[in-house]
Amino acid sequence: MSNRSIAERRRMAVARAALSVHPISPTRAAGAYVWDADGKRYLDWTVGIAVMNVGHSHPRVVEAVQRQVAEFQHLCFAVGMHESYVTLAERLATIAPGPSPKRTFLVNSGAEAVENAVKIARVATGRQGIVAFTHAFHGRTHMALSLTGKADPYKAGFAPRAAEVYRAHYPYLYRNPFGLHGDAASDAYLHQLQDLVETTIGAGEVAAFILEPVAGEGGFIPAPAAFLRGLRVYADRIGALWIDDEVQAGMGRTGRWWAVDHYGLEPDLVATAKSLASGFPLGAVVGRAEVMDAVGPGMLGSTFGGNPAACAAALATIDVIEEEGLLARSQVIGAALSRRFRALQARAPRLGDVRGLGAMVGLEFVTDDGHTPDPTLVQQIVADCRANGMLVLPTGTYGNVIRLLPPIRMSDDELEEGIATLEAAISTALAREPVPA
Questions:
Q1: Which of 15, 20, 238, 426 has its CA 20 to 30 Å from the CA of residue 403?
Q2: Residue of 94, 11, 120, 73 lying closest to 318 (CA atoms)
Q3: Residues 6+ apart with CB under 8 A from 62
Q4: Boundaries of CATH 3.90.1150.10 in the chain?
Q5: What is the DSSP string of 253-308?
Q6: For the domain bounded by 3-54+325-431, which CATH number is listed?
Q7: How much is the pTM?
Q8: How many CA atoms lie within 13 A of 372 on its CB side?
Q9: Each residue of 149-187: pLDDT tens digit?
Q10: CATH architecture of the domain covering 61-323
């Protein structure tokens, strides 16, 4: 069965709204590579959108899942407390950011983790207001969609949205309106945030601030340390909580277990999913014990959350990251990516910004004026990479960012292959004459 024939069947059977960026049908994957239905091999720098951090079909993960499935496939945790759920909660407590004792609740996805974090925050504080940020993506379920910042294609047409959700400005320093840099820009964003809370919401109404330490779908935008420190102080001052959305940035992607670990800060609640179980549906809320324990027995639940096979995959994934030194490897990969593409940026001004943490790097492209987002150029680069055997993804509020999500277990040769392919695609796209309107 070819890519084309599968696409024809898809048109008749699959909802039109279910988009695929790349017109390929994967049939096999191993390590850093994916093969499609036509037999073509691709270097995969999407890893299922930050899911396969340890690479495709890692033997440790495969073996752990096979062993668990042979024992039993499912027994809802609300029915009986299977040990792998408890063991995973213990492991997550040991790697969670900050020194406070932790508790964990397991779900199926990042959106569910976010939804439940909001529920926990509201019960723990007795308040209702949730402050999210521009350029945010927190999922597609009702509350998660309401927290998400981008209208099209995520929110437009889906109304009414959840109540008591407010929007502050994310510290997007490359596009900040203040004309400031460094800590001065962070201070300006903090002032805006505090003004919103004090004048529009009421400090005593805020249950939680929810923020991605690296805005993912918004354009791989790392929040500055000064802003996060200020947010932590301000949340404590007004009695609000901080929900740290690590769904895309967590589990070693940035060179630490969590992106927030780069700043030495402890959020009250962490939402995680994606790479937690190497492709098996699993998400988690990990939070300070006193916050999590504010919610009574039976108030949270999930039929499939914490499925034994997914828990087995997660435990094996954590083992692989620890035993193979992949946190350090992510930092090496990220440093190489940043170095090479900043060198390219010096020669190609339309590569407006190179930013990220660890192996989570964003390349923002602009038009000849040096500022206007250029999503058309990004689409050309993505297509050129695919034609030359490499998968990358666009992202960003304006669609003008290429997100680099290589597996953090990749070899030096695979890293060089990807950098060279992407550099060539960028050079080709920049040299191509624009098509007249």
A1: 15
A2: 94
A3: none
A4: 3-54+325-431
A5: TTSSSSGGGGGT---SEEEE-GGGGTTSS-EEEEEEHHHHTTSPTTSS--SSTT-H
A6: 3.90.1150.10
A7: 0.96
A8: 6
A9: 999 999 989 989 999 999 999 999 999 999 999 999 999
A10: 3-Layer(aba) Sandwich (3.40)
